[in-house]
Amino acid sequence: MALLLGRNLTRTYSVGRQLVTALATVSLEVIAGHFLVITGPSGAGKSTLLNLLSGLEKPTSGEVLYKNISLSKINESKLANIRNSAFGFIFQIPHVLPHKTVFENVAMPFNYGTISDPDHYKRLCLEHLEYVGLGKLVDRSPNTLSGGELQRLVFARALVRNPEVIFADEPTGSLDAANSTIILDLLKEQADRGRAVVMVTHEKEAMAYGSDILELKKV
Length: 219
Ligand SMILES: Nc1ncnc2c1ncn2[C@@H]1O[C@H](COP(=O)(O)OP(=O)(O)O)[C@@H](O)[C@H]1O
Ligand SMILES: [Mg+2]
Prior knowledge:
Blueprint: E1 2-15, E2 18-31, E3 35-39, H1 46-53, E4 61-66, E5 69-70, H2 76-86, E6 87-90, H3 102-107, H4 118-131, H5 147-159, E7 165-169, H6 177-192, E8 196-200, H7 204-207, E9 212-215
Parallel strand pairs: 3-8, 3-9, 6-7, 7-8
Antiparallel strand pairs: 1-2, 1-4, 4-5
């Protein structure tokens, strides 16, 4: 099933008096169970495309449909709701709150909206920390984690609300080979379980995980 449809998407930015084309026209589908890899040279618009698909930014022309809802046409709170409940995010640099514990960081997505059953959400957080191999580190400070462990923490946080789509922008860009493989295997497993994975990368090893590949050219 196509969860997201990008139709004739473009994005330009005005910088001073100049118009910068960040993304030239592209159309694509994000399908449940598929591992879509977006690749291309630096500056080709990979991150821009990911930001459009995930509703973080609006296209200059074209539209993004999430289950037939145009992300440009709904209000901010509806969009925030979709982003928080249906999408999970991983970036190159793992962003965590340093003064919270590992557990509290993974629980962050539950800070929005009301929690009807606290025990259930605690169980979910612990299950996901176990899943990424951090079950023994729940009370630790993120400052004491390695880069690979931090990225797995972010991965658990991205999964905890059961997203339909996982967006990953160069998720292995700051990791060594062993930790890259761990993250890529986890992403692949999520696609195999029926989620849609959309990953930006320019690394050959990472590209090999894709079931679909979209190559952007530099404009
Ligand atoms: N907010 C912005 N303002 C101006 N130019 C931008 C902005 N975001 C991206 N760009 C430009 O758009 C192009 C594509 O950027 P980006 O999507 O980050 O590329 P990639 O992720 O493929 O390296 C680059 O030339 C970049 O400088
Ligand atoms: Mg980028």
